[in-house]
Design brief:
The complex is a heterodimer of chains A (266) and B (218). With 266 residues, chain A is α/β, with parallel strands linked by helices. Chain A is built from 9 helices and 8 strands. Chain A is globular, with a radius of gyration of 20 Å. Chain B is α/β, with parallel strands linked by helices and 218 residues long. Chain B contains 9 helices and 5 strands; from the N terminus they run ααααβαβαβαβαβα. A 5-stranded parallel sheet of chain B has the order 2-1-3-4-5, with helices on both faces. The longest helix of chain B has 21 residues. The chains are: A alpha/beta (266), B alpha/beta (218). At the A-B interface, α5 and α6 of A face α4 of B. Bound molecules: cobalamin. Cobalamin (B12) sits at the interface of chains B and A. Cobalamin sits at the interface of chains B and A.
Chain lengths: 266, 218
């Protein structure tokens, strides 16, 4: 659907904005909120590089015209640093004239808590982390689908420098063989499987050899879990249901926004 | 001539801070052979060193892996010194703590640090490990007649499990017999209050003070 330039932005005025229906029931003309009266696209997407493939897929379908600012994947190790970086980028996006700032990121250890826009609307998926976001097809059914003891991989995660393969070498250099092995056990000992999330956004073959190296290092098997890009598509298309958190200007993101209130209600 | 007590305590401290889990054993033996008090060696040497390591971690001077290796050195030293503690060093019966990482989460570095600090402070520890089924906290607490249940999680996805454990304690009719303390980076004092946990701390060093206060020590 091509946006029409006469389309004036209007936001649904439900508090915490929650479309009552499923995404399919949202009228086809509704999404394209980022448009201003002059027809310019004033949406800016701030996206974590960990989900580059997923963001690009959704952008091709729903987001063309939208600017993307990438956040380095390394920040997931440090939620406090991530928070500062994100707020800096949000401010920058607002200065650049964004009327909507979309965050393609998870709550990430509270890295998103406290973020706010001054004049734009701030929108993000209501998911604790990108693993749970990528595992969810359709609407969120429980707080998290990720299982303990499973190392989830996508092409993005396979680029993560801190992942298992590089670490032993690094520790051997720093602490010697004996201690490196001891650290491998206490850091990674809980894993019983490596899982490739099949969300259709990348070729599983590209990650297979990396997954094999990980599985070998951990002495566990590999499996494929079905994933989806539904959440990312909802975020970019403007078909915002209860899985997408919408904050009016000035309203900061809270940890409680991610609680499973909706699931409990049913 | 044998080294002085202060000097050896300083060495014990350094072994922990410098992650020397092999050297620390030699220093401990030298310390004992010289006839010095085991309790002082533990508290002023090993534990002080571990506190320093935690401080360095909080200041981002040390990585998580450094702290883990410091705790190995601490444990190695404790093995040697602990059997030489005198009865008067331990006041009364040790208070019991059931500790674990809640179901769904396997991040256990923080829990392990809290465990070590509580252990060295004289608590009797029942470590349930990581990804612990919520009922297991209640069952273990009943079984050993625990004074404290300490729960840890690093994931916002699993933190609600802590509240569930408290509910289960009520159902089991033992809520008033056991204190609950919670921690882990996404946990806040506010969250602890909301779920009705008596204790919370931001780090392992403070966790000891909180635990002692909960059971009325000092
Ligand atoms: C190290 C780490 C790992 C290691 C864990 C190794 C191990 N054996 O623990 C590895 C690499 C294996 C790992 C794996 C995963 N991780 Co991880 N990990 C981290 C990281 C970077 C640091 C955690 C840490 O160890 N901190 C250091 C310790 C010392 O601090 P601490 O635990 O907070 O403990 C201190 C205090 O909190 C307090 N304390 C702790 N417990 C208690 C208890 C009590 C009673 C008290 C009083 C005090 C207290 O005292 C401690 C010492 O001072 C965090 C990011 C972060 N900074 O939080 C992500 C993070 C926790 N992981 C995350 C994710 C998503 C994962 C994976 C799912 C990734 C994947 N692709 O599969 C897996 C799966 C884990 C699972 N399901 O169980 C997310 C969680 C998101 C969420 N849902 O909430 C985080 C927040 C990263 C992010 N920004 O998204 N991870």
């Amino acid at each position: 659907m091509e946006p029409s330039s006469s389309h004036v932005v209007s936001m649904p005025n439900v508090p915490g904005i929650c479309w009552s229906g499923s995404p399919a029931e949202v009228p086809a003309t509704a999404p394209y909120y980022g448009m201003t009266e002059d027809g310019a696209d004033r949406r800016i997407l701030i996206a974590c590089a960990m989900m580059e493939d997923e963001v690009r897929c959704a952008w091709e379908k729903h987001g063309r015209g939208m600017r993307i600012m990438w956040v380095d994947r390394g920040y997931h190790e440090k939620p406090d640093v991530l928070r500062a970086k994100l707020q800096e980028m949000i401010d920058e996006a607002e200065e650049a004239g964004a009327t909507q700032v979309l965050l393609a990121i998870g709550l990430c250890g509270n890295g998103a808590v406290g973020l706010s826009c001054k004049s734009a609307t701030l929108v993000m998926p209501r998911f604790d982390d990108c693993v749970n976001l990528m595992l969810q097809a359709g609407e969120r059914t429980c707080r998290g689908l990720a299982k303990a003891g499973v190392m989830y991989l996508t092409r993005g995660w396979a680029h993560d420098a801190t992942m298992v393969t590089g670490q032993r070498e690094l520790w051997v250099r720093k602490y010697g063989e004996r201690r490196a092995d001891r650290l491998m056990k206490s850091m990674w000992g809980a894993y019983h499987a490596v899982s490739l999330i099949d969300n259709g956004c990348y070729d599983l073959e590209d990650v297979e050899s990396y997954a094999q190296t990980c599985a070998k290092a951990l002495d566990v098997g590999i499996r494929v879990d079905p994933g989806s890009n539904d959440v990312m598509e909802k975020l970019l298309s403007g078909r915002w249901d209860c899985d997408i958190l919408v904050c009016e200007p000035g309203r900061a993101i809270m940890q409680e926004d991610f609680d499973d209130w909706k699931e409990k209600k049913h | 001539m044998a080294a002085g007590k202060e000097e050896l305590i300083e060495k014990l401290y350094e072994c922990v801070v410098e992650m020397e889990d092999e050297d620390v054993v030699d220093v401990c033996n030298e310390y004992l052979e010289a006839g010095y008090n085991a309790y002082d060696g533990i508290m002023e040497g090993l534990v002080a060193g571990m506190n320093k390591a935690s401080e360095l971690y909080d200041e981002e001077e040390y990585f998580v892996t450094d702290v883990l290796l410091c705790s190995d050195a601490l444990y190695a030293g404790l093995e040697v010194l602990r059997p030489h503690l005198e009865a008067s060093d331990v006041d009364g019966e040790a208070k019991k703590v059931v500790i674990g990482v809640v179901e769904g989460d396997t991040h256990d570095i923080g829990k392990n640090l809290v465990r070590i600090m509580l252990e060295t402070a004289g608590f009797e520890i029942y470590d349930l490990g990581r990804d612990v089924p919520l009922d297991a906290f209640v069952e273990k607490a009943k079984e050993v007649d625990a004074d404290i249940i300490a729960m840890s999680t690093l994931m916002t996805t699993t933190m609600s499990g802590m509240g569930t454990v408290i509910e289960k304690l009520k159902e089991a009719g033992i809520r008033d017999r056991v204190k609950v303390m919670v921690g882990g980076s996404p946990i806040s004092r506010k969250f602890a209050d909301e779920i009705g946990a008596e204790g919370y701390s931001v780090n392992a060093v403070e966790a000891v003070a909180v635990a002692k206060q909960l059971v009325g020590i000092e």
